Amino acid sequence: MSSIIKPIGDAKVMGVYDILDKKVTGSKKYDSVKATINSGPTLDKALKKVGEAGINARFRRDEHFKRIKKSELAKKMMINEEDNKTFMLLDVRDADDFTRCHLLGAVHYPAPMLSRSVNPLLPEMYSFKNKEGKLLIIYDYDEKIVIPLGNLFFEKGFDNVEVLTGGLKDFGVQFPELIQGTLPEDPTLKKTVKKKPSSSPPTSSRSSTISYDDAPSSPSSVASSPSSVILFVTHNNDDNN
Q1: What is the residue range of 43's domain?
Q2: Quick one: which of 5, 59, 138, 237 has the fewest CB in 10 Å?
Q3: What are phi and psi of 191, to 5 degrees?
Q4: Which of 229, 107, 164 is nearest to 172 (CA)?
Q5: Distance between CA atoms of 119 and 104, rounded to whole angstroms?
Q6: Is the same domain home to 175 and 210?
Q7: Residues 185, 186, 187, 191, CA torsion sign
Q8: Would you say residue 23 lies in a domain?
């Protein structure tokens, strides 16, 4: 016969289960407060990311940020108000490239600046970082710089950073009215010049001069003598073979 040890008294009556099942009541005052420590990817972050971007959002492998299409950014730029900006455009190229051409309203933010240990952000970026209803949109010329920078923003704790798909190169072609400056030429496009085929194939030749008997012997008398004629005969090398 096995002996069963029973707890003395009812645990629920004693209040043990009530303490474990008791839920902590939250306060709406602190609903907008978010964690400042980035603990890595979690299920809540993934669900929130999908919920904000929508079911048609594009996510690529090894990219921890969202993308924005050219047409969507153009709409935002047209309705964005100065007193109530919903996004901030960051041009991450060099200073010379930014001066030559950039999107209207963009702010120059060089890519190496984010890796600094002291003051890595612009002062105005703090009013957009992880703020509800606000975005930080970064772009370069052809996405070569902006992709690793977008992942670095994610590692720094930014959850509202989006990358312009196609970069300035594609956006400027489709929406030139939203570009300030002159869009640089695409270095990958090379102009090809077609040569017209010649009517006769070139052959190596040597020339010799044959003069008639009535031609004058001195060169100075050639111009004065109208009856002098000089023939240039061309001999092809094929005749010597």
Answers
A1: 39-181
A2: 5
A3: -80, 130
A4: 164
A5: 25
A6: no
A7: negative
A8: no
Assigned domain for 6 exists: no
Least confident of 115-124, 145-154, 171-180, 231-240: 231-240
211 and 175 assigned to the same domain: no
Residue 232 in tokens = 């240039």
* 158 shares a domain with 47: yes
**Residue 210 backbone dihedrals phi, psi, to 5 degrees:** -120, 130
CATH of the domain at 104: 3.40.250.10
Confidence of residue 56 (pLDDT cuts 50, 70, 90): very low
The C-alpha atoms of residue 58 and residue 67 are separated, in whole angstroms, by 7
CB-based contacts of 122, cutoff 8 Å, min separation 6: 107, 109
User: Residue 38 above 60 pLDDT?
Assistant: yes
